[in-house]
Amino acid sequence: MTGRAFFGRLGSSMLKRNTIAALAVGIASVGPVSWTDAPVAQTLTDMLAKKTQKANDKKDRLAVESRELVYDKDKNTVSAIGNAQLYYQGRVLEADKVTYDRANNRVYAEGNAKMTEATGQIVYGSKFELTGDFKDGFIDSLRVDTIDKTHFVAPRGERTGGETTVFEHGTYTACDACKDDPSKPPLWQVRAKRIIHKNEERTVYYEDATLEFYGVPIAYVPFFSAPDNTVKRKTGFLAPHYVASSAIGYGVATPFFWALAPNYDLTITPTFLTRQGVLGDVEWRHRLINGSYNVRATGIFQQDPHAFLQPPYGAGDRDFRGAIDSRGKFLLNDKWVWGWDVAASSDKWFYQNYKYRGYANANAISAFSTLGFRETTSTLYLTGQGQRSWFDARAFYFRGLSYADWQKVQPVVHPVIDYDRRFTPSVLGGELTVNANFTSLTRSQTDYQSLVQENGVTPGRYLFPIGYTANGTPISLYDSCAPGQFNPAKCFVRGPAGTYTRLTADVSWRRTFIDPLGESWTPFLSARGDVLFKSPETSGYFNSSLPNFLDTSDDAVFRGMPAVGLTYRYPFVADTSWGTHVIEPIGQIIARPNETQVGKIVNEDSQSLVFDDTNLFETTKFSGYDRTEGGTRANVGAQYTFTMNNGGYVSALFGQSYQVAGRNSYNNPDLTRTGWDSGLDSQRSDFVSRLQIAPTSNIAVTARSRFNESDFALKRVEVQAQATFGSLATSIIYARYAAQPSLGLFTKREGISTSARYDITPNWYVQGSVLIDLSRHAAERFYQVQGYQTSNPVGIGAISLGAGYHDECTTFGIVYQNSSKQTAADGTKERVQTVLLRLELRTLGSASYSYNQTTVTTDGITQ
User: Fold this and answer.
1) Could you tell me the pTM of the whole model?
2) Preceding peptide of 425 cis, ω within 30°
3) Cβ(618)–Cβ(685) under 8 Å?
4) Which tens digit of pLDDT belongs to each residue from 656-679?
5) Domain range 3-232, its CATH number among 3.10.28.10, 2.60.450.10, 2.102.10.10, 3.90.180.10
6) How is residue 601 annotated by DSSP?
7) pLDDT of 251-307, one tens digit each?
């Protein structure tokens, strides 16, 4: 039965009122249905074919709903009047009145007309004139809203084949209309003589186009095209970005993206620089079933190498410079993953000089984004995670990017392996843990640190061979020991030359009991074993003095450390009208034999020792595996917590540690002197404290301190505060650390870092940050070591000021940054002033500009 026959059964030109008409009508390409076929035996193939045909028939039929349905037999039309809704092939056409001209197979929709596509895209118009299948036609006062909230508007539009839409004198924007005044122009829009959207190509073409901001034209383009909202990746040019620097000149990068296949692509980015030439940049990305990887290579043949400082402060003697990096990550199964992250460059200064975005993103609009990084770390890893176990194996190669980094003292780690397993069900009612670590590394030159001062200056920086002078005085580069000072009284070793391999295994158990009085008792015990295989390197000028510090006689060293202990807690709780108070005394006792093989087991991973509230009750306060705490030690303290009814809280802790019996490991230094000046190197440790105050969710202050155990002098303090007051968000960090002369740190270190952001409106904001070095003598010492004086050492480490705007369609930001004494970092400047500008128009792309005001200086330096 065809659609014509179905409507013919209505009979006359009568109105059918106040009813809901739900009619299945075949308008287009639906053949007649036979009702006389006799049933026959059906195969499975026949049944599947008929089901498919029925599904297609259902999809191609039209369903109509309206308050009134009018059939005009003379005009051969059917009209749905009053909230008319037509459903066809996933599309929904709505209007006050929809008329179907059966003779011409045309559909007319008038009054609040709206068509929703199967994709979710919505088309509005004052009048629709479409073919019966909705694929062709004209629309007056056209507006198209896509699913990702982009908008096309035109006085008239034409649809062709359901594939192409032409907007005559149209506009395009990704901005929403103003809620208060929809007639106002959006923040930005593209106005064009013709906008052509081709669905099959998934591309939008703009002819005679103008970019407008608030209705004001600012740029004209005769023709351009862009992917539509359904495209995630497509071959073509990406938005350019601009750079400027006194060392490299002005430049523009023009990325070209080549979508070779759905799972791999290539990006080619030449950057044309007025002073240095063309910087080439190629990136390959490949996605596989179980992972993905990328490879990126950058290089340039410099036209003016002398724009940069000469060695050892820069790469002013190089014609070709470049870098290569690669990252990859692959799943072996649901528990195991392996990958890599590697980087290599022609010289230390390439990343900073050319703002290499692989590591220092020149497009980033954030505080201190151009301060860069000081090293690259290449790693190859394998990681596995079970329900209660974890495994990680990694190999590392470190490269320092500062002029003061001597690559030969950097270790190559091959590899470090960690394993942790916690057993369930519980063993003897407690938790049993197995932990293991394997570390192997090689270093070609011994890394020394000087312990000598002359006239308040540490003459430990040493370059071998020297070859450079400042005002007639040799320039020192590397933190090392000067000739004739290679003995433990004047130097210590941060890392010995040679190959060192250590294996550690640790088994521990603990269980917590609560007695009837509410007291908490946690007994614990552990057993640990270590073996170190060492092959020291003693040949060469620096390495020949290594036996003065390290016992090189044994090829293998063994160490064992059993321990048994108990932790006691007794919380006292009081409820008041303001909140809940908890006072909790804590005591801990740990019994162990003395630490053995100190100075024979090389300390590579336990050099960072900070005694504070976070490790007061740790069984060992060393940070790694190369050192372990020995002897009998007691840790005592008290903790107070006040939880307010409004959700705020106050928390405080105060405590001290005691060496009860045996040798104090922290006063028994290894070749790195770890433990001295730590606050733990006496029988009674320094006092440590913590205070946290958060009266509301908008304010939080945390202070950590360490006080001398004899006179309560402040040895270390860190204060961090964060607050939000309406549209203003602020943070400040203050730190002060006393001198540690036993570690070569002869003066205090003190500084403040503060930042703030103020949202002027929901869209506009301003922000700023300041890094202040309060230890101004550090700058003075630097200049004195270099052989020249300064009367005004800089105390401002870095300043950042910025402003920005963001909404649903636009992101804009501008940042000014000023950082100090970058000569020591990248070899091109003493201070650097940077302006970063970025504008992003959603769906159209982004453009950025970076300008560096550099100071290339060689004052007082001769070669």
Assistant:
1) 0.79
2) yes
3) no
4) 999 999 999 999 989 899 999 999
5) 2.60.450.10
6) B
7) 999 999 999 998 999 999 999 999 999 999 999 999 999 999 999 999 999 999 988
